[in-house]
Specification:
By secondary structure, this protein is an all-alpha fold. It is built from nine helices and no strands.
Length: about 240
């Protein structure tokens, strides 16, 4: 596969991705809990997740074959591909978020691994400083206030959810600090993707623990899938070599 073919294939997949995201939101709107509606929505959701994994694989292929980087860089970028594969698994289990508590716990565990791998990639490549911890603390303070004001009842899952929230906040903070320092399109994509990932889970928390308004569901999906696609695209060598001035 040539560089041009890879980029064209990625562009095609992104367009299909956007179209399927609209279909998925509609399918969830029509999903009344019956077997057919649930199955249709689940298939569309996992198709979306498979596409962002496919884009990550293609981007990594292009990085491996059409860039000149150190071996450690290639291996660390592979962590992003693996992280998104865990996210795909998490998407399956969280489809049962209000139907099966065991699947919900499993889904959170998969997404926890996703965040750990993404954080490992950024920290090993770019180091760790005080700025990301300060930003992370600020984000967590806002989230804690939101939880308090809305009286989220986390129950037995409190520790698991809080640990995952800390990882989300740190990932977004680290990606933002890295973006400001490196200023490449790839890191801009990573920072925006991480921010959307965090926002999607905050919205999911509002929907799951405070309200069942459909708007929160749709925002969660749009933010999450847009964020994961940007993270997948961030691997491409085209974006790591394009500086923003």
């Amino acid at each position: 596969m040539t560089f041009i073919v890879g980029n064209n294939l990625t562009t095609t997949l992104v367009v299909i991705y956007a179209f399927l995201l609209v279909l998925y939101c509609r399918a969830e709107k029509l999903n009344t809990g019956d077997a057919y509606g649930f199955k249709r929505a689940t298939i569309l959701k996992l198709t979306l997740s498979s596409i962002f994994c496919a884009v990550a694989v293609i981007s990594y292929y292009l990085l491996w074959h059409f860039s000149h980087r150190s071996n450690i860089f290639y291996w660390l970028q592979l962590l992003i591909v693996i992280a998104l594969a865990f996210a795909l698994a998490g998407d399956y289990f969280l489809q049962y978020i209000k139907l099966d508590i065991k699947k919900y716990k499993t889904g959170i565990s998969f997404f926890t691994v996703t965040q750990i791998l993404l954080i490992a990639n950024l920290c090993i490549l770019n180091g760790v400083g005080w700025k990301e911890f300060v930003i992370c603390a600020g984000i967590l303070a806002v989230i804690l206030v939101l939880m308090k004001v809305q009286n989220w009842q986390l129950g037995a899952e409190k520790k698991r959810v809080m640990a995952y929230t800390i990882l989300l906040a740190f990932m977004a903070s680290k990606a933002f600090v890295t973006m400001l320092r490196e200023m490449t399109v790839g890191y801009v994509f990573m920072a925006i993707g991480a921010a959307l990932f965090l926002t999607s889970d905050i919205v999911l928390g509002v929907w799951n623990y405070k309200t069942s308004r459909p708007l929160h569901k749709y925002l969660n999906w749009v933010f999450y899938f847009s964020g994961t696609m940007l993270i997948a695209l961030s691997i491409s060598p085209e974006y790591f070599t394009s500086l923003i001035y």
